[in-house]
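Revision sheet: structure tokens.
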Amino acid sequence: MTDSPKPPNRDPQGIVGRLDRWLSPIENATNFVAATFIFLLMLLGIAQITLRSVFGIPISGYIDLVELSMAGMAFLGAAYTQRLGGHVRMELVVGNLKGRAFWLAEIIGLIVGMAIIAILTRYSAEHFLRSYQLGDTTIDAEFPVWPSKLLVPIAFTFWFLRLTIQLAGSLRLVLDPTKSPEGVVLIKDAAETAREEAHDALSDPLTKKA
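Predicted:
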């Protein structure tokens, strides 16, 4: 029996696959909110430059709005990125492992990550609660700060759930490496990544028109 896993199951029926499908739309939504924050911040920056340079009327509280948007932009897309494996990974050693050895290494990394995220979730929640109770505001325009701080433990909670699903998927493959992967990130070699990027480029309508 070989340790090579089957291709990913496109319609997973196991509990890990069902949890993965349940959490994925939520991650997509939070990532969309993060992208919306970035887009709105770009529009706000354009408006600030235009109003300040042309009309001499800067937007009141512009710096405060930028500060409040940072939490959403930085953390709401974390679980989505974790799901796609878009985060920075050190694969010089792990990438050369196969079968159970690879999934055991993944489990170790996931457990460490879950411990860190659990600590950050607790203290960020306490930080939000303290800000809410004190009525903390920004220095300039005095906008309430607690909504921005609330986004951090929410984002970390979804991140922790994603790590939990990946841990369960990795444990499942340690028990039987021949099963179809569910809820885990598969490492792609440089050739496979290049093929996918070339396929995406050829499929892009703008590329076809060019």
